[in-house]
Structures are given as C-alpha cells and as structure tokens.
Known about the structure:
alpha+beta; about 45% strand
Amino acid sequence: MPTNPQTLPLPVTAVTCLEDRAHVERTTDLELDAGIQQLRLGPVSALAVDRTLHAELTGGHGASVLDVRIVRAWTPHGPGPADDDSALRLRVDELEAEQVTLGRRRDRLRARLEALGRLTTDLLRDISEGTGFGEPDEDRWTRELDRVDGERDTCGEELRAVEAELSALSTEIDETYRALDMAEEPPAELLGHVELTVQAAEAGPARLRLTHLTPCALWRPAYRAVLEGDALTLETDAMVWQRTGEDWSDVRLTLSTARSARAGEPPRLTEDHLTLTDRTAAERRTVDVEFREEEIAEIGPAPVLGLPGVDDGGQARVLHSPVPVSVPADGRAHRVPVSAVTSAARSEYASSPELSPLVTRVVRFDNGSGHALLAGPVDLVRDSGFTGRGTLPFTAPGAPVELAFGSHDDYRVVRQVEETRDTTSLTQRTVVTRTVRLHLSRFSAPEDQDEQVVTLRERIPVSEVSAVEVRLRKEACAPEPDAVDADGIARWDVRLAPGGHRTLTLVYEVSASGKVTGL
C-alpha cells in the first residue's frame, strides 16, 4: 500500500462547545490517487478521544475511508536552547547558565573559607604549643595571623558579593519565567497525527471531514445590560475556556447545553407503601401549627451554589456565534459575542423593608433576543457607568426579565413592628394583632424638583389550615394597601416629593381556636 510521506494540514474549522468538552470538526481538500493509499494528516491535539473519531469523504469518485486512527508521538524538549526558541526563552537559558556559574563560585569560596578557618585553628595551636615549650616566634606568628585574617576578610567580601548577585539573579529569573508564562505556551511534547487509509476508484480531488470529541474545553453564559433612559440593551456573550493543546483560529463556534456523557435511561421505579393509622385522643383535641418561611418559587430549576453547570431549563439549547472566532489554548477565559437586543424597559423604585432598608431601582423588560437566556452573571451599566454585577435567571423567549440596578441613596426606610396577644375567656380563641409601621424619607439634592413613585412591599402571613384565620384590618391601615396578592404581599405605590417623608401602617390579625397549639 503506497504511503504519502508528506504530512498534510488538517485545521480546525468548526467547534461545538459543550458543558465540559468540545466536539471538533476538521475539513481539508485532498488529491487522491487511484487505489488504496495511506495519508498522514495533522498535527492534531493529543487529547482527542479515539473512540469518537469519525471521517468521511465527499466529492470524490468512488472514494471511501477504510481506516482512521490517531498516532501519538512524544518529543521532549532538549536540555539546551533550540534554534526556534524565543528571545525570552533564550534569556532564561542565559540567566540559568549564569546562575550555575555563580553557584559554583560560591561553593569554592565557602570551601576556601572553611580551609582558612582550619588553618587559623592550626596556627593558634602552634602558638600555644610554642609558648608552652618556651620557644616563642612572635614575628612569624604575627605575620601568619595577619595573612590569614586578610585572606579571610577578602574571601568573605567576595562571598557576600556573590550571594547578593545570586539573590538578584534568582529574582530576575522568576520575573522572566512569569513573563514567559504570560507571553507564550511551552511547546507540546506529546503530539498526535491522523493516519487515514482511503480507497479511490480513480484519481481526483476529494473533501475530508473529520470529527472527534476533546476534553479540557467548556463555556458558560455571561451578559451585559446597558440601561439608557427607557431602553435596555442586553448583550449575550459566552465565556469560553480551552486547554486542548491547539488554538482554534477563525472557527465556526456553536454553543450547546447537551450533555453527551449523561445516560438517557429513565429512573427505576420502586414500590412506595402507604399506611393509615388512627389519631390519638391528644391529636384529636389539638391542632399543632407553626410559622415557617416559604420562598415564592416559579417554574424552573432550583438555583445551585458555587460554579454551576449550564442551566438550560431541562431542554438542550443551541447558540451560534454570528462571526468566526479565535480561542487560543491558554486556559484563560475569552469572551465571545452571541447576540445583542434592545428592548423597551419599565423601571420602578422598590423596597422590601423586611429584607433591606434600601430602595432599589428595578428594571423589567421582555426577552426579545429570540433564544432562551441561560442563567449567568450580568454586568449592569447605567448612564453613569458600571454600577455592579447581578445574576440573570433562566428566561424563556418572550418571557419577562427583572434586573436590579443598585440602590438609590436618596431614600431611607425604617421598619417598626408591634405585636399584641389576646385570649377570650369564653371561646378560648387567641388573637395576635401585629402592627407594622414603615417610615419612608427622601433626601434629595437641591436641583431635584420632580416627584418619584416608590413601591413598598410587606408580607402578610397566609394560613394553610382552617383553624387559623388571617384578616387584614383595612380600617386600621393608614393608608390601605393598593393591592394584596394571593401570596400575602401587600403593595403601596407612594408618591414622594423632594425632601418629603411618609409613614405607612399595616395592621393584620391572626386568630386561632382554642385547640390550636404552637401559635
């Protein structure tokens, strides 16, 4: 079987980025000879999954693929500098060679200092022995001591200078390595090539399409909301990371939430036994109730703390980049634009004093992007510039979206709660009366002249048992709430002039029969 010794290029032309991997597509044009032949193409990423490798030929006259496989070769970088090394890498090699030379000189100076120390010890012993035997030689001893002390001082100064140079050299090497890490990636030592065996009935051109899965690639949605007057521009982007070992240059990028590694089997059904028991006499006489916090949830998946996966609402979503993009294999986050849409926005100043004493500007608009908005972070921008970062929940196409654009510092809200409890002696019925007072103040600049509407919300308990009743005392409220929804949320729309203040009073009763306990 003839083998083409030339390695043909096989570039990446399209990528489908999944939640934790990527589906890579490569295309190239080939000139085939008649008969069976083997081609070598690449290089390709060594992380490519072999069992997902698929190749097909189009446009050829009876051409077909007989076998396709990835062959990997390990080529380690040599110990010395190479001809194609960059200036930074050559500088690192030069500094490391200088560090080795200075290290050897430091070792020689330390050994010489140790030898001079031993010589000083021997000279002092000679002085003590000569003095003991009564044979002093003061001139020689003085001359030798002066010579040894001078050499020790000179050697010590040289050692300190060499250690200072080594310290400065080590700092320079660390800085050069950091610059090298930021400027370029080390050359790959493990490379893969595709060995393709094809059969053609006659010679001619053909187009090869090869696909495979590759790990070390992922994406997450990100947004940028710009509020200008009554219009809001929402930019949908994708943050893409990849460390596959090869750059993606001018590729068609598709973003998908499909989870190819998750099995599609239905859950196994198990038996659930239900039993009935008679209530005891004490349970018949009393009804045990308790107050609990219940979050008002909407249809959709539950939020996940930390770095979640792509929240697609239970259905696989596909997004496309409108232009070819380039994502280098540096492991860093790269922002890829997906879509941008401008919608009419409705804003209000809202506050829930039970949760926070701040008044927040809330903007509502409809999702007119034409695709689902996946859950992700959103950068909030107003006329004054960047105001903060929030979280955008999963939103279906055409569904309303709500974003908070930070607090309004001109307002202050103070909440006071009073509670009284009364029990009638005849029916033993307990009545709990709760009074909530909300004090709203506006501190505006002297140039502010217009009134603003502030929406205040306060909750009222909702009873789930017939033995406990909750009643809003409208005659005692000042003013009466503009609306109370089925979840017990009372709402006021308060008009407030600059420098003005208002006090709102909400009164409701919680009454329970005598057999109710835990209230």
